[in-house]
From TrEMBL:
Catalysed reaction equations from the record: O-phospho-L-seryl-[protein] + H2O = L-seryl-[protein] + phosphate; O-phospho-L-threonyl-[protein] + H2O = L-threonyl-[protein] + phosphate
Coiled coil: none
GO cellular component terms, A-Z: nucleus
Organism from which the protein derives: Panicum miliaceum (Proso millet)
Function field: This promotes the activity of RNA polymerase II.
Domain BRCT, residue spans: 356-447
Protein EC: 3.1.3.16
Stretch list, region Disordered: 1-64
Protein name, as recorded: RNA polymerase II C-terminal domain phosphatase-like
Gene Ontology MF term list: RNA polymerase II CTD heptapeptide repeat phosphatase activity
Domain FCP1 homology: 142-312
One Pfam family from the record: NIF
């Protein structure tokens, strides 16, 4: 019986094979001492290797795991039989395909799989004629052990400013219309009126992330700007290719949606963006980045009355800055997804992201002081909800179970109570945990007057 075009490993056909009269290849024949000819056996070492390979194939589960009803190794459909066992044939061997998908003779793009065979109909092409390249189908992604990663540009991977908006301090620090490109610091002049600063570690981030994800750029900026910026991020086109979506291609000019990516499935998409409100339909796919505000114009844009990094002649650090921290998060999400596919517990990256996020503050119990207005219902406040999403327990009152008091004023009763043997932190501690997906050092978030 055929199952979606897959033949069972080691199965015996129900039809008898007809005898063949074909002679063996004469080049393989050798003459024995008795004058007869025969085909030599392979050396013992090769026989052992062949037997080992047969045993390995028999030991492998017929289908290691399913995502959206498809085996991630061969693409066969999952059909429930009596007792809940999947009625599908084992995966066929694939040239260049190792267990859990290391593709050697092809990649996620233009590689092993160009179409999916539907059991109920004709083959479905893996690409379509559209201005945006079609996302690799789920089968191809999983064979390559990859997911989709959608990246925002401005304030996520870089920061741009018009030269006329440079502050006097920035100009005195050398940022002018005469500023030259500096590949070492990631500073570029895109045209006569625009400066762009790449976020530290962005190239290392893209290089390592590309091994785990098929990556896209999605910006609400214009197409010409988007392509000029991506040229600085990916000069050889090895990370994004033509997978660049700007405001011209977006289905809405002020919002982002996965419907702009032909073939993309939300179960395998991770989004990295500094703005959550532009993704109303895909909050569960989103990892929110803290904004990269290198220039003063961006600080003013978001209402921050602080000196910019360019004014301070400072920058994020390469080895432990925002992108370095986010790369570690993506590694955990990627590993968690494929682990969950193997053990059959989950086949949706959104559920994996929830689980990884809940580990951030697991074991912590937080009480709030002067953070949530008294007239508000505490459980509906964004800070309360965020703290719970990070895995902590929120308490309305300070009691023995509380480990952290989150306060804005060190003089409140709860804050004074926390000084003895609890952690007293300001609300930025919660925000730092949400941006870096790890428990921050409490000593770096003291509660001071006037906060």
């Amino acid at each position: 019986m055929a199952w979606g075009g897959c033949a069972c490993d080691g199965s015996v056909s129900s039809r008898r094979r007809r005898p063949t009269n074909r002679l063996p290849d004469p080049h393989l024949l050798v003459r024995r001492p008795d004058g007869k000819t025969t085909i030599p056996r392979p050396p013992p070492q090769e026989q052992d290797q062949a037997r080992g390979e047969q045993q390995r194939r028999r030991a492998l589960p017929p289908h290691p795991g399913f995502v959206r009803g498809l085996c991630f190794r061969c693409g066969a459909k999952e059909e429930d039989a009596e007792g809940g066992a999947p009625r599908v044939a084992p995966c066929p061997p694939h040239r260049g395909l190792s267990f859990l998908g290391g593709v050697k003779d092809g990649g996620a793009e233009g590689g092993v799989v160009g179409e999916i065979q539907d059991q109920e109909g004709p083959a479905v092409p893996a690409s379509a004629t559209t201005s945006i390249p079609r996302a690799s189908d789920l089968e191809t992604l999983l064979r390559a052990r990859k997911l989709n990663l959608i990246l925002d540009l401005d304030h996520t991977l870089l920061n741009s400013t018009e030269i006329r908006e440079l502050s006097p301090t920035e100009q005195s620090n050398g940022f002018t219309r005469h500023t030259r490109d500096d590949a070492r610091t990631g500073l570029f002049r895109l045209d006569v009126c625009l400066l762009t600063k790449l976020r530290p570690f962005v190239r290392g981030f893209l290089e390592q992330a590309s091994a785990m994800f098929e990556m896209y750029v999605y910006t609400l900026g214009g197409q010409e700007y988007a392509r000029a910026v991506v040229k600085q991020l990916d000069p050889d086109g090895v990370y994004f290719g033509a997978r660049i979506v700007s405001s011209e291609e977006s289905t809405r000019r002020d919002m982002k949606n996965l419907d702009v990516f032909p073939g993309a499935e939300a179960v395998a998409v991770v989004i990295l963006d500094d703005s959550d409100h532009v993704w109303p339909d895909h909050q569960e796919n989103l990892i929110l980045m803290n904004r990269y505000l290198y220039f003063a114009s961006s600080c003013r844009q978001f209402g921050y009355d602080v000196n910019s990094l360019a004014e301070l002649r400072r920058d994020e650090r390469e080895h432990d800055g925002s992108l370095a921290a986010m790369l570690e998060v993506l590694k955990r999400v990627h590993q968690g997804f494929f682990d969950s596919v193997l053990d059959g517990s989950c086949s949706d990256v959104r559920e994996v992201m929830k689980a990884v996020r809940r580990e951030v503050l697991r074991g912590c119990t937080a009480a709030f002081s002067r953070v949530i207005p008294l007239e508000d219902f505490a459980g509906d406040h964004p800070m309360w909800k965020l703290t719970e999403r990070l895995g902590a327990v929120c308490a309305a009152n300070a009691d023995a179970t509380v480990t952290h008091v989150v306060a804005k004023d060190p003089g409140t009763e709860k804050a004074r109570w926390a000084r003895d043997n609890k952690f007293l932190v300001n609300p930025s501690w919660i925000m730092a945990a949400s941006f870096r997906w790890c428990r921050p050092n409490e000593q770096e978030f003291p509660v001071t007057r006037g906060r």
